[in-house]
Amino acid sequence: MLKKRSKSRKLSVYSNLSTSRKTKKDAEAKKRAQYLASLPKHPVKRLLCRMKPKNFFGYWFSKQGGIKALRIFGIFIIILCLFLGGLFLYFRKDIDAIRPGELSKNVQSTVTTYLDRNGEVLWEDKGDGNYKLVVEGSDISQYVKDATVSIEDKDFYKHGGVSFSGLMRALINNLSGGSTQGGSTLTQQLVKQVFFADEAQQRGINGIPRKIKEMILAIEVERMYNKDQILNLYLNESPYGGRRNGVESGAQTYFGKSAKDLTLAEAALLAAIPQNPSVFDPYNIAGHEALIERQHTVLSNMAEQGYITEDQAKEAKAYPILDNIVPEANQYTNIRAPHFVQMVRSQLKEELGETTVGKGGLTVTTTLDLKIQTKLEEAMNTMFNSSKPVYAGFSNGAATVEDTKTGQIVALMGSRDFNWPGYGQDNAATAYIQPGSTIKPLVYSELFQKKLSINYGSGSILRDENIDSIYGAQLRNADRTFKGDITIRTSLATSRNIPAVKAMYISGISKTIDTIHGLGATSYCTQGNETQVGLASAIGGCGVKQIDLVNGFASLAREGVYKPTSYVLEVKNNSNETLKKWVDTAGTQIVDSQSAYIVSDILTDDIARSPLSGLHAVGMEIPGVKTATKTGTSDKDGNAKDIWMMSYSPALTMGVWLGNSDATILKNGNSSIPGQIIATVMEYAHKDVYAAKGLWAPGSWYTKPSGIQTVNRELYPSWWNKSQGKTNAKMTFDKVSKKKATNLTPEGARIELDVTKTTDPVSKKDIYLAPDGYDATSDDDSHKSTDVKPVVSISVKAGTTANTYVIDVTATAGTFSITDIKVKVGGSVVSTMTSSGSYTYTVSSSDTSAKTVSATVTDSGYYTGEGTAPTSIPEYTKSEQATQ
Fold first, then answer.
1. C-alpha distances in angstroms, 225 versus 96, 164, 628?
2. Taking phi first (over 0 means left), then psi (-120 to 50 degrees means alpha), and beta for anything else, what does residue 247 get?
3. Dihedral class, residue 560 (left if φ above 0, else alpha if ψ from -120 to 50, else beta)
4. How far apart are the first and last CA of the chain?
C-alpha cells in the first residue's frame, strides 16, 4: 500500500512539472501573440516599429533579449576560436624557421659583391673586419636591451606577443591626427623582419593579412620562447643602418667595439636606429639632427621607466656621440669606384628595400667599366698633381662618363680622391652645382625645334646687345662687350650670354626648362628659389647634378632621344634568383633629330669657337675621335666659381667639373682646363675599349637627318623658310672697315650694297644682313676727323728730244699709305704710279694746243689729293726747246 502511494506521489510531481512548463510556455506564446498583434501587419512597417528605440532597447535589455544576445555571442566565440585555431595550425609550420640555430644560418650570408660590367670585383660589402651578426644574449650590453625595450615596446615583459592596449592606443592616436604609430610589439616586429620583410611596405587594406599573420605568429613565438630569447633574436635581426643587421654589426661598425662593451650613450643611439634605418643611419649626414633627437627620446624613456637615473640620461645626452663615430671611409677598404658603388647601393635600397639590401648576400653586376674608371682616376690624379689647381684656384673635381646608346654609367668620380680629408667622401657628381654655359646647347635645342612663324637655324641672327630692360637686371657677356648681329653658330660656339637668353625668351622659359628636364637634366632649377630664377636659367643660373647634366647631353648625342641613367645590369640573391635586370628601351624623343644635329654640328666647329678657345684646344679636338664639346663657367659676384667641360660622341658622353667644395671663387676661370681630363679619358675609352668591343669605329659620326637645309654653309631645319620675315633694302658701306658709311667716310670709300632686313624677335630692332663680310651693325671706325689726307705736287719741263716733256710728281702720304698716283694731261690719264717719280710725255708735232697737266693721289683709306702743274703743254716753242 505504501509503495503504491509513493509511486502515485512521483507521478503527481512529474505531472505538476509538465503542467507548469506547459502553462509557462502557453503564457509566453500568448504574450508573443499579443505583441505581434500590436505590430503593423505590413513587413516593412513591422520592422520599422521594432526599430523604435523604446521597442529595440526594451527587447534587448529584457531577459529574453539578453538570453538571445548571449547565444549569439557564444556562437561568435566558437567560430572565432575555430578560425584562430585554423590559422594557428596553418602558420605553425613557419615557426621552426626562427629557432636560434636556423636564424644563425640565415644571417651568415650577408656579403654583397659588387662587380663591374666585365665581372671585375669592385667591392665585397662585408663591413670593417670580422664581426658576428648573431651573438648570445650574454654578449649584448644590458643598456642595449633596456634601451630597445624602452623605445620599441615598454610593455614587452607584460604582454603575450600582442598588445591590444597598444593597438588601441595607436589606433586612437592615428585617428586623432597624432604622429603615426604602428602598435606592433617587439615580438611582432621580429616576426615581420624574419617572415615578411618583402611585404613590410604593404599598407592599408593590402597589409591586413600580413598584420594578422604577424599577430598569430607573435603569440605562438611567445609560447615557444622566453622573453630573453625573443629580445636576443630581435637584436640580432634588426637593421642598424646601411647593410648592418644585428646590434653586433652596428656596434663594430660605428664604435669599433663589441655589443657587450657599449656605453649608455652608444646603446641609446643604436636603439634609435631600427625604426627608420635609412634616415637614422649615422653616416647619413642629412639625418643627424633627427637621429640625435630620437637618441634623446630613448634616454628619456629609459629614465622614465626606471632603467637609468635622470643624471645618467643627462650625462649621456651631453656626450658628443656623432663626433666619436668611426669614419665611414674605414668601411670601404679596397673598394673601387667608391662614389659609384655607394650610388648603386642607395638605388638598390630604394628599389629592393632596406631590409633586402641590408641582409646582403647579393651579387650586383654594375654598368661600370673598370678599365675606363681606372683611366679616369689616372687623369684626375694627373690634373691635381699638376700646377693647374694652384694656377686656377680649384681643389676638387668630379667626372661622369656615360654610354651614349644605353644611358649606362661606365665611369664616375665624385671627388678628386675618396680618401681626401674633409670632402673626399662627398659626391660632387650628385651635388647641385651651377653649370654655367654648358646648359646653352640644351636651350638652343628647344629653339631649333620650334615651328613658329619665324624659325631658327645655325645661321639665324640673334643680336648680341643690351637687353637689361627685358632681362630685368644687368646682363653682360663674359668679356663685357656686345658683338651685335652674330649668328647662333657664333653665339653658341663662343658662349655669348645675351643670344642664349633671347633663345629662351623666344621659346618660353617654362617650355625650355621642360625640355631640359625631358632630356635628362631633371634636377636643373628644382631647388628652393631656383624654381623662380627665370631667364637666368638660360645661362646656367641654377644648380644641377652632374649625372643629370651628362644624361642631358647624352640625349643630344642620341639625336634627341632620352633614356634614363642606369647603374645596374643585374642583381641576384643567394638562391641565384634574379631580383633586378637591366632592359634597354627605345627611349623618348624629346628634341627633334634635326635640332639635335644642328647643335652637334655647332659644337664640333673648331673655327667657330676659336675666338674663345683658340684652334685645336685640348679636349675640344681629340686625335682620331670626333666629339662635340661645350665649356662653361659659373659666376659668383662677377667672379668665376666653377669650370665645366662637356663632350660627347655617338658612343660616349662625358662631363667634368672643377671647383671648390665650399664654393669659393677661382683665381682663373679658364673653362678649357678640364680638357686635359676629357682628352685622356675619351681618347682611351674610344680607341682602347669601345673600338675593341666593336662599339665605336674611327670616323663615326651622325648621318645628317633628312630635310636639313644648308644655306651658305649654315644648317637649318626642314621647316625653316629662307624668306621668312625678310625684306630687301640698300645700304651704303665703307670699303675699308666694311661697316656702315658715315659723314667722315670719303666718297671713294663708299659703296652701296643690297642688304636683307629682318627684325630681332626680342628687342624688335631692325637687323640688316649684308653680303661679303660687310657689317650692317657698326659704323665706319676707320676714318676719323683727325685723318691727314695725301698731298701731291707736279711740275713740267721740256724733254731732251723734240716734242717731249718731263713730268715730275712728288706725293706725300697722310694717315694712310699711298696706293696709286694718276697723272693726267689734258684731262686724260697718261700714267699710273705707286710712288713719287718722273714721267716723259711725247706730243704729236701737229698738236699745238695747250694741255693742263695734273696728278691725283689716292691712299688706302680712299682719301685723295690733287695737284696741277703751273705750266701747260706745249707752252714752250719748238725753237725754245731746241735752244734748251
1. 12, 20, 68
2. alpha
3. left
4. 211
C-alpha cell at 489: 653658330
Rounded to an integer, the average pLDDT of 875-879 is: 45
Residues 826, 829, 835, 840: what is their CA dihedral angle, to the nearest 10 degrees? -60
Q: Is the pLDDT of residue 282 over 80?
A: yes
Mean pLDDT of all residues in 579-602: 97
Helix (H, G, I), strand (E, B) or coil at 809: strand
For residue 713, the 8-state DSSP code is T
Amino acid at 352: L
Which residues lie across from 752 on neighbouring strands?
A: 732
Name the H helices within 428-487. Answer: 440-448, 468-471
Nearest by Cα to 628 from 492, 781, 789: 492
Largest CA distance in the chain: 215
Give the helix, strand, coil percentages of the chain, each rounded to 5.
45, 20, 40
Phi/psi at 532 (nearest 5 deg)? Answer: -115, 20
For residue 845, what pLDDT band results from cuts at 50, 70 and 90? low
Which residue in this structure is represented by grid cell 697722310?
814
Distances (CA, A) of 8 to 2, 218, 848: 10, 65, 195
- Taking 70 as the threshold, does the pLDDT of residue 833 lie above it? yes
* 663 grid coordinates: 664654393
Residue 884 CA to residue 866 CA, distance in Å, equals 29
Decide: 368 and 122 in contact? Cβ < 8 Å: yes
How far apart (Å, rounded) are the C-alpha atoms in residues 541 and 527? 12
CB 677 within 8 A of CB 379: yes
